Amino acid sequence: MEEHGVLAHIRLNPRFTWILPQMSPVCALATMVHEEQLQSFLEVWKLSSEEQRELHYLVTNYDSNKNWKYKLVDGVPKRWVAGIALLQDNLELYNEIMRWIIPTFPLRGRDLLDYGFRPGSEIGNMLSELKTKWKRSNFKLSKVELLESVKSS
Fold this sequence. Notes:
Helix content is about 55%, strand content about 0%. It has about 150 residues and is an all-alpha fold. Helix 4 crosses helix 6 and helix 6 packs antiparallel against helix 7 (about 90-100). The longest helix has 16 residues, at about 120-135. It is elongated.
């Protein structure tokens, strides 16, 4: 298709000449769509909203999988993060991502209310700050340790 100009005509321009069996169809498509082509591609091709979001993520993040654990904890689907590893031809990282069990942040807004915080944006800000601290601890800080860190600051 490429040698006959078909891919360019249908707005695809392969970055890679390989597709791995582990790749989802959207991940395989991401091997052929460049970031600068993405919007015009999405205007022509009909994808579901979910497929569009996945393709956008893969195309705009394909060169970075730094802090992949943070991305998973923050809710980026595992298939998307693992897709980046496949686009980087890194099967070892792909397997590590697929095996990794995503930890659950140990605090909720209710915990801070019970701890004496008033309802409002202060709770959201504090939860965000504590989640960052928890991530930097490699997800090891417990609920008690996180609450203690609020008390000491």
